[in-house]
Design goal:
Length: 132
Amino acid sequence: MATIFSRIAQGEIPSYKCAETDEFYAFLDINPLVKGHTLCIPRREVDYIFDMDDDEIGRFQQFAKHVAQAIKAAFPCVKVGEAVLGLEVPHAHIHLIPMQSERDMNFSNPKLQLTAEEMQATADAIYREFMK
Ligand code: AMP
């Protein structure tokens, strides 16, 4: 059975799209630690990121870099932090989190409650930067 993230990448389940290529897709985390918290995934189903071969993980990281640059342009921050957990969803994903301080990378923090309009505006701002 397809993972929830495969179904998101295929458009079967709605998401707030931030960026895409033929091979990868980026969308807002539904429970953001901060505004702009984005997930990058490969369209191909693979659970553990370190099972990717060297070329694929290289392209994946390059995609994440371009998304991180778009996030930073849309939401000025000290740096965009990157994390890989994968304990919840068995489909490789990179968390990108615009940081004002290292506290923003604490996954135990309470999550932000944003309206659908705020989520859409956030995703649109990142997408516009990614497409520049
Ligand atoms: P982890 O696998 O531990 O990296 O956590 C999975 C992450 O995916 C969590 O931060 C969730 O909030 C996020 N997530 C789960 N389902 C969705 C969804 N349908 N849309 C966006 N983000 C999701």
